[in-house]
Automatic annotation (TrEMBL):
SUPFAM superfamilies: C-terminal effector domain of the bipartite response regulators
Protein name: Helix-turn-helix transcriptional regulator
InterPro entries recorded: Sig_transdc_resp-reg_C-effctor (IPR016032), Tscrpt_reg_LuxR_C (IPR000792), WH-like_DNA-bd_sf (IPR036388)
Alphabetized UniProt keyword annotations: DNA-binding, Transcription, Transcription regulation
Annotated ranges, domain HTH luxR-type: 1-52
Organism: Sulfitobacter profundi
CDD domains membership: LuxR_C_like
A Pfam family per the record: GerE
């Protein structure tokens, strides 16, 4: 989910790509933010890239 967010996809677009509901995407992004100890998805993406969790 973070990788799709990193390239600018919305929750709805990511849901369409992954065939899940937008609410599921948002739930996973919320969990990612909690695990990365950040407050929003932009910060989560930045931290994940810096930590080499995701690449774009």
């Amino acid at each position: 989910m973070l990788k799709w967010a990193a390239v600018g996809k919305t929750a709805w677009e990511t849901g369409q790509i992954m065939t899940v509901a937008a609410s599921t995407v948002n739930h996973h992004l919320y969990n990612a933010c909690a695990k990365l100890q950040v407050t929003n998805k932009t910060h989560a993406v930045a931290k994940a890239i810096r930590a080499q969790i995701i690449t774009i």
